[in-house]
Design a protein that fits this description.
With 394 residues, the protein is α+β, with helices and mostly antiparallel strands. The protein has 13 helices and nine strands. It has three domains: 105 residues; 93 residues, Serine Threonine Protein Phosphatase 5, Tetratricopeptide repeat, CATH 1.25.40.10; 109 residues. The strands form two sheets. Strands 2, 3, 5, 6, 7 and 9 form a six-stranded antiparallel sheet that branches. A three-stranded mixed sheet has the order 4-1-8. α9 packs antiparallel against α10. It is elongated. The two termini are 66 Å apart.
Length: 394
């Protein structure tokens, strides 16, 4: 903050100079006025002496006129170049008073309306934190300085969760939702914090938050993971497997958390078998999608590719779908019940399906430029299917 105050002080000196210059100029004008008055007094004294000399008979009238003219020339010479005094209606005390009040008022207004705290926070965040506690303290100060920043509150809530402070996190996420709206991801984070703040006790509030989040986005990952945890803790192992399988389907292949999540699914399956239950088999179809040489020459890397399965005999809506781009091809994806577009339209509910891949430059899953289709397949097919996009979409 030292450089900031130095700059502020320099600007203050410049401002004060505009107030003090008129005062200094006034003093200079006063000195000039005093000198002029002295010259006039000397002139009057000289003229009086000449008059006395005439009265005494020393000077005649012509000599008197010559003496007066000489004294007048000397007076003009002495006063030549003196500026006409400027009249000021403000008086001298007002500029001096303003010179004192300006810095005081300026400092007071800045401390009230200024952003010195934000300047300091910017400086702090430019340096890496030394610990998680240090980062949390910075985020707390940022939230205090910018209470209307939903982004700052969100990161503060995540920091609280990382420090095992779920009660504080739940309050912060509630404020974040109030500012940013009821977004699925925020609702999921709020529900998770509330669940752990309640000592892992499922409550109507947590249920309502997860229901709302999944209604807005059936693939909201935090809610799916939380519901899986709650189901496992409640010994509802099949539900835990279902929720975690849906979550696993959303994670990219390189995500490090896939291993831990699959371990949780396997553990839930073991628990279910130990209790005498049977793990329900979920329908999952694997398909590898590529482009023909002709389509590859025409498609753009940014074009959307929709890969989905639809019932051969049933509604035209996709049963399961994934979205990638041309740049990601060739790609292998899995389609299963976790990818269902609607809960009542699952892949396992239909015996025969068709795999489809469509390129849509406009990003619309129902229409596009090129398409590839498979032959009808049993929905229980487990072998990897090859699908090539090679035909115009008509």
């Amino acid at each position: 903050m030292i450089d900031f105050w130095l700059a502020a002080g320099l600007l203050l000196l410049i401002a004060l100079s505009f107030l003090l210059i008129p005062v200094l100029r006034g003093r200079r004008a006063q000195r000039e006025e005093d000198r002029t008055a002295l010259n006039v007094a000397l002139y009057q004294e000289r003229v009086a002496e000449l008059q006395v000399q005439q009265d005494e008979g020393v000077l005649n009238a012509a000599q008197l006129d010559t003496g007066r003219a000489e004294a007048a020339r000397e007076l003009l010479a002495d006063t030549e170049g003196v500026e006409k005094p400027r009249e000021s209606r403000l008086g001298k005390p007002l500029p001096l008073l303003a010179a004192v009040l300006v810095p005081v008022l300026g400092l007071g207004l800045y401390m009230h309306f200024g952003a010195s705290d934000k300047v300091e926070l910017t400086r702090e965040f430019s340096q890496p934190p030394v610990s998680m506690e240090d980062m949390t303290q910075r985020l707390e100060r940022a939230a205090a300085a910018q209470p209307d920043s939903a982004e700052g509150l969100y990161f503060l809530g995540r920091a609280y969760m990382a420090q095992d402070r779920p009660a504080d996190a739940a309050k912060v996420f509630e404020r974040t939702v109030a500012l940013a709206g009821r977004q699925p991801e925020l609702l999921g984070q709020w529900a998770q914090a509330q669940y752990f703040a309640d000592n892992k006790q499922w409550s109507p509030k947590v249920q309502a938050l997860t229901d709302e989040a999944l209604k807005l986005d059936p693939k909201e990952v935090t809610s799916l993971g939380l519901l899986g945890i709650a189901a496992f803790e409640g010994q509802r192992y099949q539900e835990a497997i279902d929720y975690w399988s849906r979550l696993l389907a959303q994670l990219p292949p390189q995500d490090n958390s896939r291993v831990a999540l699959q371990g949780g699914i396997d553990r839930a399956a073991e628990k279910l078998k130990e209790s005498g239950g049977v793990v329900a088999q979920k329908t999952v179809m694997s398909v590898r999608v590529d482009l023909s040489a002709e389509v590859k020459a025409k498609a753009l890397p940014t074009d959307s590719v929709f890969i989905f399965a639809r019932a051969v005999s049933g509604p035209p809506a996709p049963l399961a779908a994934k979205r990638v781009t041309v740049a990601e091809l060739p790609v292998t994806v899995e389609l299963g019940d976790a990818d269902a577009m609607m809960p009542q339209l699952k892949l396992s509910n239909f015996p025969e399906v068709q795999l489809v891949a469509r390129i849509s430059r406009a990003g619309q899953p129902t229409t596009g430029e090129w398409i590839g289709r498979s032959q009808p397949l049993a929905s229980t097919t487990t072998a990897l299917q090859q699908l090539t996009i090679d035909s115009p979409d008509k």
